[in-house]
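Reference record
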Amino acid sequence: MIPRYQKVLFIILLVASLVMGVVLWRLRERAHKRMLAGEDSAPTRAPEVAPAEQATLVAANDADGSLLSQNFAFPLPQDPGARARVLIGKLLDLYATPDSNHPVSGGAAGVAEVFLLPATAPKDPQNPNAEMAVINLTGNFAASHPSGLETETLTVLSICATLRANLPRVTEVRFLVDGQPRDTLAGHADLTRTYLTANAVPTGGTNP
């Protein structure tokens, strides 16, 4: 004769199995409906490309250690974080060209993401919505960057100056590499500090 407690346990397990079966079936149905809804809402045409806008890239020149403003026109997204990433990517593309005055390989692929956060400094009445740009560079970009205090500093300052020229609300810049804090860019330029964009001032300007 089967003991009473075993009968009770069997009934509990049976009910639990039935409940789990119903839950799994409903989850499967929901997933199927979401998949069908995704297919129905898929765009039938390519998304519109952002219009070209005038932008200023502040590029470094290794010959004299200067920062030169250059005007370009290219598509820019409206989202400030995405806009900052495109601007820095275009600057790094400029450095990757064969005739660059500040040769650095990698191009736009060297910047993984840019996040905009409230600035940490006391609020400036003239810029009450000041922001900090947190720039996440890739490990490949840092590994291939030429080593040297001046060349690394010029890269950092040119990025800060480019953001200042196009996004006035960005007053501070911090750098990460592969999402993690890093002591230096390539052995010299300090990446543990917060850079002030006000200290990155172009020394000249040319129009290509």
The longest helix spans residues 4-40. The beta strands are 52-61, 66-75, 111-118, 131-137, 170-177, 195-196, 204-206. Residues 24 and 59 are 57 Å apart (CA to CA). Residues 52-206 form one domain.
